[in-house]
Write a structure and sequence with these properties.
transmembrane helix, cell membrane, ABC transporter involved in vitamin B12 uptake, BtuC
């Protein structure tokens, strides 16, 4: 496994280093951008708040943005790791369950129905409901029939539903062009313009999804051995798969509802973490959470400088990283 960390001590050291890197990246996210601050400005913004423009930017824009990016990155990465073992597909990501397409479809329907009266908080709830409904439908569709659970059927069901939802979304936007600007702003994937209360609305669901995934980590290790081996070891496959799907919906649905469909984080991060800690999900999931948070926070910081003074949505920045990585993984699997 290359540079795999050996033993619990080495892996704990790796987690500690990852936590330090996450804190450093979040600090950079707060301090750097079109407006640059220093540590003294950050301290005064909370200890000696005076209502100035600088203090408002720090407290209402930069800090919430860093926290949201970290939470979304961690959630998407863990959801991707769970999806890859659940479907036995190394290219799986949260979008496989139709989370992105379902959330976008419901958001566009909400914008077409309510227009400008739809608040950001309302959009979050609609997106979370859409992600949940679509994922449940995909899971039910993929497990119908006498064959039981088959990863290829889940994959095909997810791809079909995602394509259908995207087509309906495009049709609604063409019919109701007034919702186009608002929909595009949300669909591109971004953590800017969000407020701390938006995070607090969905964070309990994301935290529940993370805790559920961690509790299932031992069962996921058994599931990764294959269905026959898992049955032989007494694994309750239906229960494990159902709870894993719930975890993915909570993690990815919460992320998409607050930041839009940010691609490739759930694909890239689990592969990177496997390179260092192997396939033990008891370690892979915590590493994925930390690495996903670091990746998205860092990508968000970088996106501010690509077209300065304008900002590139972080969803575009992750796509620039993710597409070459996807090609690399696909070619590596083909050669294998």
């Amino acid at each position: 496994m290359g540079f795999t960390a050996h033993g619990p001590r080495g892996r704990l050291i790796g987690l500690t280093i990852g936590f330090v890197l996450l804190m450093a990246s979040m600090l950079a996210s707060i301090l750097y951008g079109l407006h640059t601050f220093d540590l003294n400005d950050l301290w005064k913004a909370y200890r000696q708040f005076d209502g100035s423009n600088e203090h408002l930017i720090v407290t209402t824009a930069r800090v919430p943005r860093a926290l949201i990016a970290a939470a979304v990155g961690a959630s998407l990465a863990v959801a991707g790791a769970v999806m890859q073992v659940l479907t036995r597909n190394p290219l799986a990501s949260p979008s496989l369950f139709g989370v992105n397409s379902g959330a976008v479809l419901f958001i566009v329907i909400g914008l077409a129905a309510f227009g400008s009266s739809l608040t950001m908080g309302g959009m979050i709830w609609i997106a979370l409901i859409g992600a949940t409904v679509t994922s449940v439908f995909v899971y039910a569709l993929g497990t119908q029939g006498g064959g039981g659970f088959e990863p290829i059927r889940i994959t095909l069901a997810g791809a079909s539903v995602a394509a259908f939802a995207s087509s309906v979304t495009s049709g609604i936007i063409l019919i109701n062009k007034d919702s186009l600007d608002s929909a595009l702003f949300w669909m591109v994937g971004s953590v800017s313009g969000r407020k701390l209360e938006h995070l607090t609305t969905v964070f309990p669901y994301m935290l529940l999804g993370l805790l559920l995934a961690l509790l299932l980590s031992g069962s996921l290790n058994v599931l990764a051995l294959g269905e026959d081996n898992a049955k032989g070891l007494g694994q309750r496959l239906r229960l494990v798969r159902s709870l894993s799907a719930v975890s993915v919906v909570l993690l990815a649905g919460g992320s998409v509802s607050i930041a839009g469909p940010i691609a490739f984080v759930g694909l890239i991060v689990p592969h990177l973490c496997r390179y260092f800690v192997g396939n033990d999900y008891r370690w892979l999931l915590p590493y994925s959470a930390l690495t996903g948070a670091i990746l998205l926070v860092t990508a968000d910081v970088a996106s501010r400088f690509i077209l300065m003074p304008k900002e590139v949505p972080v969803g575009i920045a992750t796509a620039l990283i993710g597409v070459p990585f996807l090609i690399y993984v696909a070619r590596r699997r083909a050669h294998a």
